[in-house]
Specification:
The structure is a homodimer.
Chain A: E1 2-8, H1 32-44, E2 49-53, H2 67-71, H3 85-90, E3 96-102, H4 108-121, E4 126-131, H5 136-141, H6 150-170, E5 177-180, E6 185-187, E7 197-198, E8 203-204, E9 219-222, H7 227-236, E10 239-242, H8 247-263, E11 272-281, H9 285-296, H10 301-312, H11 325-331, H12 336-347, H13 353-362, E12 365-368, H14 370-382, E13 387-391, H15 397-412, H16 425-429
Parallel strand pairs in A: 1-2, 1-13, 2-3, 3-4, 4-9, 9-10, 10-11, 11-12, 11-13
Antiparallel strand pairs in A: 5-6, 7-8
Helix pairs in contact in A: 1-15, 4-6, 7-8, 8-14, 11-12, 14-15
Chain lengths: ~450, ~450
């Protein structure tokens, strides 16, 4: 299985409140030393990559304002992840760097140039997490009147990747970069092509400004959970990131995307599925539970409610955390399914909003000894999950615990690599694939036929 | 005086043909090791900064096509400079990183975020070289029908910097980032402001996504030589980069910009002027001349003609390098002044196109012993030049020669620093200034009054 260190360039990514823990280094997120240390921890644990999430704009409002977003650090402030990569790359040799770039954030011509530059500098260790932004505020900060409608965002994403594919795959032929010192020829203009893209949103002449990088197209990741998102992933992604909860839920999502991928002419093993989980590791179950309880003392319920509000699109700000969940079924119809699940599985009809919040974080939390955690990961593996995005409770404690204690057990069981495979990120994730995407991926149609 | 290592993320920046020299490492420009080595050379020489030029798009056409641009590597291919910075920053402690970002290249909201991120990661060592792009091809690759007219580009730049100033200076008050672990408060929303910019080209809600970085606004550089460019520099720049040739030419330009700066209410010492020069260093004059002759064997006349054509806006492609210059006076009226200068000073009426090209490179080349080079630099100093952007002939040989042989002589004469001043790039360049821009700079009007 593959393992990624999952994080955002922000003081509080997912386990809100944990930045206050005395051992947390989250507040050092603007210091390169923290990032270089994390890259080294990840490489020590033979993780495949650091997967850098991002949010381009403020989270949705809560209690009618973004006060709680700021006070409780709900992924705000948030710095640019791409700027961290070259320092981490220079301190490592095999670790991959998957970073998020929203189609909202940069023109594809500029983005393609930056991504190719990074693919060179890392010797082919770059992955791109393609996202269509959800932040209304982010849209308005980029001059768009409001959020672009969901399906339209995916049509936009389709054109965006098309432009990047043309630049990465079609602009330079393989032997265009000559570098002939004796003849004094750097590159062969007959083998470098303007792309002359003219589409609905973009008009791009080209050529690509960067010579072909090891992977050309970075390894492609996606995390969309909507039907438009899954269709996009099925067509384009080489890795899909999910936060599904129990293994059965992962399995259901994997089946859906694989079916769509088959329709798009892609093979069942061309997409890797990664589940987001966090871990609390102890040398005994009891120690792990004690550690979890200690972590939970730092939990920030207000931040969680703000996140939950943003996620479900209902402002939970008016809800008392101790209010019975049954009340909410009426006021927040969009949550009915989840609420019913909590009522059924947690505390029956006395369940409160607090129980809902606890449920929503605990569904992606695994607590135990390295052995019991490995057992749980095996369940995900059996359900068809190819890898885990390790989310943090403590930065960087969660990652060091996993790298130093869980990975060795997984290695014993043959579930985690002991050494890196050679080559680019793509070759490491898909052994035998070669550094470039295969011929049945949409990129292939933009290559010049030889 | 200040000294910068001047370079572009491309295999051939200025001394075209030198990439073929056996000792050149220019072809390694996509390898981080080269950049980390250069940062260390620069810091060893107590240089103030690495100044990274950029070109966003292809150079102008030559012989009616861009074939020569590709074959002779006229600043093509060209990778993204910003991606190099964190690796170089992590390998150094005091060196500044001045990088070029064209207003064409990125939306100001995205750019401001990246620049603030870098200013954090480098602990305040970032400078921004503001450019309005000149590449017609670059414009067309970003969806603009053709090049934007010159003065209009500076109006665009004016709005662009205004947006960034609002984000950097006006969005977060000084004490907005609370980081109070005990109270569980990350930041104070009452002290973080949306900017709600509505201008001709941009509409930006804000807030800035990054908490205030050490300098907030990166140290600002500019290189415009036109009147609109000089007016912009006078108003905004803290450093002006020139390639003027002899010291008297530098002095004339400095006087012009200083007069404009005074009109804009800025003091005579608020702008530093840097001249671009390259150096060939020998232990004797004779050795230096021999080395120069050896370097000149690699000189690529075709590339030079392409560059000269782009610079003067006349396609020199039809000119035989051995054609008498007198012929050209008729066909290229825009060059009359320069041509007459070469005829007058170089070889009289037998001067050829080749002489013109040699003249244009030699005017920014200083050849000699460390002592005679220091003498020449003193002449620039006496003419009011505050610093030198060291352009390369050999990468990285030119820089190591300068750092190891010329700098010690300049230090002896009190013209180069022996140790770095503490603090941010701004504080290093303007001792006693504090990390942020002063109150008579336009940024000040975007600050919240306390």
């Amino acid at each position: 299985m593959l393992f990624n260190l999952f994080i955002m360039n922000t003081p509080s990514h997912i386990s809100h409140g944990m930045w206050r823990h005395p051992e947390s280094r989250s507040l050092e997120y603007n210091d390169l030393d923290l990032w270089v240390d994390m890259a080294r921890i990840a490489e020590r644990g033979k993780f495949d990559a650091i997967f850098m999430a991002d949010i381009f704009g403020l989270y949705g409002e809560f209690r009618g304002s973004w006060d709680a977003i700021a006070e409780h650090a709900v992924q705000f402030p948030v710095s640019d992840p791409s700027m961290l990569i070259s320092a981490m790359a220079h301190a490592t040799s095999d670790l991959g760097f998957i970073y998020t770039n929203s189609i909202l954030q940069q023109h594809p011509f500029s983005f393609a140039r930056s991504a190719s530059t990074l693919d060179h500098l890392t010797k082919g260790r770059i992955g791109w997490n393609v996202v269509t932004s959800v932040s209304k505020n982010g849209s308005r900060s980029m001059g768009l009147p409001s959020i672009v409608e969901h399906d339209e965002r995916y049509r936009w994403a389709q054109e965006y990747v098309e432009v990047t594919y043309k630049l990465w795959e079609g602009s330079w032929e393989d032997d265009a970069m000559v570098k002939d010192r004796a003849a004094g020829v750097m590159s062969d203009p007959r083998k470098i092509h303007k792309i002359n893209h003219k589409g609905e949103r973009y008009s791009v002449e080209g050529p690509h400004l960067v010579e072909p990088s090891p992977q050309r197209t970075p390894t492609l990741f996606q995390a969309g959970a909507s039907s438009a998102g899954m269709a996009f992933a099925a067509r384009h992604a080489e890795g899909v990131f999910m936060i599904s909860g129990p293994p059965q839920a992962s399995a259901a999502k994997i089946a859906k995307v694989k079916a769509l991928a088959a329709e798009a002419g892609r093979g069942p093993d061309e997409i890797l599925f990664m589940e987001g989980l966090t871990f609390v590791v102890g040398s005994t179950e009891e120690e792990a539970r004690r550690k979890e309880a200690e972590y939970d003392e730092w939990n920030d319920v207000e931040a969680q409610m703000a996140v939950m509000s943003g996620t479900i699109g209902v402002d939970l700000g008016s809800a008392d955390p101790d209010q019975p969940l049954t009340d909410l079924i009426e006021t927040a119809p969009g949550m009915r399914g989840t609420i019913q699940l909590v009522i059924d599985t947690v505390r029956g009809r006395t369940a409160t909003v607090r129980d809902l919040l606890a449920f929503s974080t605990k569904q992606w939390r695994v607590v135990g000894t390295p052995e019991s955690i490995a057992d749980k990961i095996e369940e995900y593996h059996a359900a068809g999950v190819d890898g885990i995005n390790i989310m943090s409770m403590l930065v960087p404690g969660t990652y060091t615990d996993f790298a130093d204690h869980v990975i060795p057990v997984l290695q014993e069981r043959g579930l985690a690599q002991r050494e890196y495979a050679p080559g680019t990120l793509r070759e490491k994730l898909f052994p035998g694939s070669g550094p470039r995407l295969g011929d049945n991926h949409p990129v292939a149609s933009y290559r010049k036929s030889v």
